[in-house]
Write a structure and sequence with these properties.
By secondary structure, the chain is mainly β. Helices cover about 10% and strands about 55% of the residues. The chain has one domain: Porin.
């Protein structure tokens, strides 16, 4: 069951993205973005011990959906994340890496600043930290092409605090 739930969710998300991209009036290249981020990753001992942390990097790409909601951006995002080793000694595979697929929504906050948005995500991780992931954060649009994000992402075994930059085409 652990494997089938992520596979079913990924299939549903990818078919939704394909259907939405075919129905859009904009060329697909105008809705693509790429990004990269750095992260602080924390895992807690399942036995009440101390927590361990490691630096990480993430590379991602996304496709925005064409929707009719004012101030709401929705997208399908695919990413690859990798961390440094969590432990200093030889405990086997001590890092977390893998691919993920997420649905991302950004709601603009013009009451505060027209360039600021609240961000939420739900997805599936297919790597060492496999399972459902949930995230929340904020994004800042520096220009039409350049944006920044600050996020907290909760995965199966780790908590991720991430800063990233993205470029819209």
């Amino acid at each position: 069951m652990k494997f089938s739930l992520p596979v079913l969710l990924a299939l549903g998300v990818s078919s939704t993205a394909l259907t939405v991209s075919q129905a859009s009036a904009e060329p697909i290249t105008d809705r693509l973005y790429l990004g990269a981020g750095i992260s602080h990753n924390v895992i807690d001992s399942p036995f009440g011990g101390r927590s361990y942390d490691a630096f990480g990097t993430t590379f991602f790409g996304g496709l925005t959906f064409d929707n009719n909601y004012q101030g709401l951006m929705t997208a399908m995002e695919f990413s690859y994340s990798d961390t440094e080793d969590f432990f200093d000694n030889n405990r086997g595979d001590a890092d977390i890496n893998g691919f993920a697929a997420s649905l991302v929504a950004e709601k603009s906050l013009p009451e505060i600043d027209a360039r600021l948005a609240a961000l939420g995500r739900i997805g599936v991780d297919f790597g060492d930290d496999d399972g459902i992931l949930l995230g929340a954060g904020a994004s800042f649009k520096a220009s039409e092409a350049l944006g920044f994000r600050a996020e907290y992402i909760n995965k199966d075994a780790s908590n991720v605090y991430q800063l990233s930059a993205l470029i819209h085409f």
